[in-house]
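Box 4.2: Ligand-aware structure prediction
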Amino acid sequence: MTHEAMAGSMTAIPAGNLGVVTDVSSDKQTFQVPWGKAMMWIFLLSDTFIFSCFLISYMTVRISTTVPWPNPSEVFALSFGGEPIPLILIAIMTFVLITSSGTMALAVNFGYRKNKKVTVMLMLATALLGATFVSMQAFEWTKLIMEEGVRPWGNPMGAAQFGASFFMITGFHGMHVTAGVIYLSIIAYRVGSGFYDRKKGGNYETVEIAGLYWHFVDLVWVFIFAFFYLW
Amino acid sequence: MAYVAIADRDHEQHLHDPQSFVTKYIWSQDHKIIAIQYSLTAISVGLVALVLSLSMRLQLGFPDTFSFITPGEYYQAITMHGMIMVIYLLTALLLGGFGNYLIPLMCGARDMVFPYMNMLSYWVYLLSVFVLLSSFFISGGPTGAGWTLYPPQSVMPGTPGVGGGIVLMLISLVLFIVAFTMGGLNYVTTVLQARCRGMTMMRMPLAVWGIFTATVLGLLAFPALLVSGIMLLLDALAGTSFFAPAMLSMGEESRHAGGSPILFQHLFWFFGHPEVYIVALPAFGVISDLVAVHARKNIFGYRMMVWAILSIGVISFVVWAHHMYVSGMNPYFGFFFATTTLIIAIPTALKVYNWVLTLWRGNIHLTVPMLFVIGFIFTFINGGITGLFLGNVAVDMPLSDSYFIVGHFHMVMGVSPILVIFGSIYHWYPKMTGRMLDDRLGRIHFWCTLFGTYAIYLPMHYLGILGLPRRYYALGDTSFIPDSAQAMNAGISIAALFVALSQMIFLFNLAWSRKHGKPAGGNPWNATTLEWQTPQTPPVHGNWGKDLPVVYRWAYDYSVPGAAQDFIPQTMAPEDVPRDVGSTYDGREGAHA
Ligand code: HEM
Ligand SMILES: [Cu+2]
């Protein structure tokens, strides 16, 4: 059996939009990426819909509730030497998370150069920054619950939906970060232990896939920051 | 660096065939076993839903006769029946069952791209089923909120199962979504990335297109259900008020304030409408393949069919509020959603025309699968036409929440996909087991099911136009409903019992033919698609033996003029095609542009 006959019927790629269709629907792989990466992109698309639903729901209840919404810059202020500084903790948290995206990007880069040691170090640094973020979030939650009296079902400052949305959305995002920290640690361990070198044609592609997830979680935080804290 | 796909590696390299009984049939990563596990679980839980529907029909047909059905239990039965049928039976069977079985086989892959995750998908699904069913055994019983779970009533006292039932329902749904996501990511990636050589997307059988698009819809629509489920769970457990406004409930002020019930409806239907196409699209795809095989003719308008599937998928995300006309909305919104709803009927109708045109001048074999195909086309036209009524705001207002709705969605989402499922089980059972299902029993089963279901659902349209409200335990003294409505209700109930009983024929056939059916051989229907070309029947682990198949043509080379046989398998190279003496046909794939 020859493959030429089959190939012959496919070589003519029409110009214009039809060509795009022909290319995308062509032989075997639609996207020239590893399976894991394709799957991660699709998963993130699905996850985008989850976070969009959360944020849109939050905005809807914020608009439709009958009681005034607490002022985020007052609620999320920290006092240093008697002076309240609005949103300072959130600013630091955001900074930490964005920095971690930087270390992650470097890790991917060194992964492609197969620099095992630096890749592992950078991934662990990313995970550590992520863990720092989660700890600061835990601190923020504690402060809100213990000092400000914010509860899912109510708070002294205004609409009950404030606490409900806050705990739900930051909690869901925090779970993503926590999962990411565990995920990164496992991949870092595997890179370090030579797991990917032993595979045929060994490469550190998985580092990039983990990176996709991590950047996504950071990006989502930017939206939460903008819609929850700055609005 | 070139990426070596698992499918490209040698058979030995990739597959360590499972050895023990447990890894082979229970804790299995083989897509075919997982498909069968999904299907059997879905069918079993579907039988529970069937029994529930019978208890409702007994109550409706013969009120005051059956004292064991209380109003509360009636609501619980309605809720569990609807949710099980839509999610745990149809979605699980069409995607988890058919998707798992057909995608790798029809695309020429050895398995799903991530078999371990695929296996987990099944076990989490099974867990979600157990959580759901466990609500029958707790005090207070399952929730009676209706399958739409509208708050505030679903979380307020007075609705059955408000303590534990609703919580278990929501947890089970969350688990189902996790399971579906693990499976769905696999299906989509397999279709996109793991097809065998020569299998371009535009050569894929329409069954794969339908399942693929439905899975994408699922991955984008289930998030809305997940989010509304989490928020409702918080309302029920943590005292939040996302969906519950301030209310007086049973003489007491509720602890909720300021929530938005309409928000839930938007989230629910943003999921709910695509969900009807998650069920419909795989059915559309499968039926296209069955119709071509059993009419020995290429599917009419293949490309149009693909684009119709894709455009239905896109449009189905912008029609959801047609379920909310009576909830109240800005008239411009109503106009928008009515327009999109009617637009989606265009690609849908196009598909129906193409099925009929495929039959036209085909060589129709009235096999059991073909009977189900024809039954499906009729039923779907029926349900689609009532959909057009309901899509118009002014016509929908009086019909909404009446038995007309029940008639509509049972025709279009109940009977139609079920007929497809039956037809395709008759069609693929020989591949799955190596034996044919009994033909005579199949025919009896078909006619009983078809006439029985029409006897149930056609009268419901009439009852709805009379004004019979849906979800009522009993009619009582309602002056505008004539007494004859009750007689009709009794007739419907008898038909329902009859249909349920006739399914026993099918179950018996499934069990009996497993041992005693006629041996099927590898390709009993003379079909072209890859699953019929496997070296063994039933296909073994890895599907293709040592070499992956190579595809030379689209899936519908039936009755090609000049070819000696009336079908040319996708794996047959042009130069190998047996030709009629003196024909000029060169053996290439039929034109399908
Ligand atoms: C031409 C196509 C269709 C149109 C125009 C249409 C229109 C509608 C409308 C407007 C409603 C809401 C009625 C109301 O609650 O007042 C409805 C309900 C429903 N439709 Fe369709 N439909 C179509 C096809 C389908 C298909 C293909 C399915 C499933 C496979 C489906 C399943 C349902 C279900 C399950 C409901 C009831 C949901 C509930 O309230 O519990 N429909 N349809
Ligand atoms: Cu709809």
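In the box above, the bound molecule is protoporphyrin IX containing FE. Confidence is low (pLDDT under 50) at residues 1-14 of chain B.
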